[in-house]
Amino acid sequence: MSEHMLQEAVEKLKSSGVRITPQRHAVLEFLLNAEIHPTADDIYKALEGKFPNMSVATVYNNLRVFREIGLVRELTYGDSSSRFDCNTSKHYHIICESCGKIVDFHYPSLDEVESLAEQITGFDVSHHRMEVYGVCQECKKDKKQIV
Ligand SMILES: [Zn+2]
Ligand SMILES: [Zn+2]
Fold first, then answer.
1. CB 84 within 8 A of CB 39
2. Which listed ligand is nearest to 94 at the C-alpha?
3. Which residues take part in binding Zn(2+) (predicted)?
4. Domain spanning 3-85, CATH class
């Protein structure tokens, strides 16, 4: 993550009329640095030492503000807690089945799927989601050590 991205995000908040509190700034900075697509709980745990008065609810509130102005995307997975992604450009995710880590990868957007689905079903398609699953490099290494 570059200073530049943080600066840009802060500018976007300011221009949307959002007040930048130290906590809000810290949540934003953590999100931009985290490559794992953290949950609100991950963020809370990482920052509670620095902000003893902060609650998980505060983290959620901040994330909601960020989401509303388009700084983060919320990724929902059934009933497990949402993950937050500050990469709002089009990309796909690969998910480790062993540790749950989510990694970005780029692949040409599968727009054909959307128009095809529209034609077949008559739906108005808004977006699509594709996830690839497997075992990440670290987990592969760990497995070998156990054997
Ligand atoms: Zn893993
Ligand atoms: Zn992502």
1. yes
2. 2
3. 96, 99, 136, 139
4. mainly alpha
Q: What is the DSSP letter of 134?
A: E
What are the sequence ranges of the domains in the chain? Answer: 3-85, 92-146
Residue 30 sits at φ, ψ, to 5 deg, of: -60, -45
pLDDT of residue 87: 84
DSSP states along 5-52: HHHHHHHHHHHTT----HHHHHHHHHHHH-SS--BHHHHHHHHTTT-T
For the chain, what is the mean pLDDT?
Answer: 90
**pLDDT tens digits, 112-125:** 999 999 999 999 99
Distances (CA, A) of 33 to 38, 40, 75, 136: 10, 15, 17, 19
Work out the pLDDT band at 142, boundaries 50, 70, 90: confident
Q: How confident is the model at residue 20 (pLDDT cuts 50, 70, 90)?
A: very high
Residue 136 among known ligand-binding residues: yes
On whether 25 is known to bind a ligand per the annotation, the reply is no
Backbone angles phi, psi at 79, to 5 degrees: -95, 0
Q: Which one of the ligands is nearest to 134 CA?
A: 1
